[in-house]
Amino acid sequence: MKLSLKIIILLFITLWGTSCTSYKDVAYFQDMKVDSVYNEKINNYTQITIQPGDLLAIQANSLNKDQDNLINYNLERTNGTSSVSINRPGENVIYGYLVDQNGNIKLPFIGVVKVAGLTTQALGDQLEISLSNYLSKPIITARIQNLKVSVLGDVKTPGVYNFNDERMTVAEALGMAGDLNTTGIRQNLLLIREINGERKYIKLDLRSKSVINSPYFYLKNNDVLYVQPNKDKVFGSDSTLQKVALLISALSIAAIFITRVN
User: Which parts of the sequence belong to the SLBB domain (predicted)?
Assistant: First the structure.
């Protein structure tokens, strides 16, 4: 009888230990101090720069409203207030200024403008100077219309997510996707980034606070985040109910064994 009891206890410990994800594999920022409030400077943020394939909204405001309209002609479409259907047969409308593969756009008055590598603030400042010969006291604003990030793998809601604010973090992107499932591997988050004609693969560890200070904590346009599942997910034991059902089945088998022995 004592031997049978030991078998049950051993079986219980083994099944529970193998079926449960430990705290150290799930918690974020484990080395962060949580017993006090402290401040630190943000030194790892860099502004998003314009890249080929970006769609720019450019707005001109000056004392020459008629000339402004030549630049702003598709601004309403860009802001989604146009009554023109984008599904109209035979129509290939670009809503904004599309940056070509050479990193250029073409604007009224000044023609081809090299924009790749510039921030939207720098582009606005540059255009104010370039257009000052055609517009009276121009104020130019620019923004990227098609900012997006893809979140794939072991998260609640994988998908492609659009965002308007140029300041987007890894944490915010994962939050938009509903956060990692408990079976997602926190220490092996893969960031795929294409910039300046190159593709980079970066591994990030969400369990450590150091990820917040990483130069890759702030995302860029078209970044891809991939969350790798652990073995629990692969074998289909990613829910508490499944674990409990497995445990009950094992205990039932053990009980039958003990009954037959006695």
Answer: 148-227
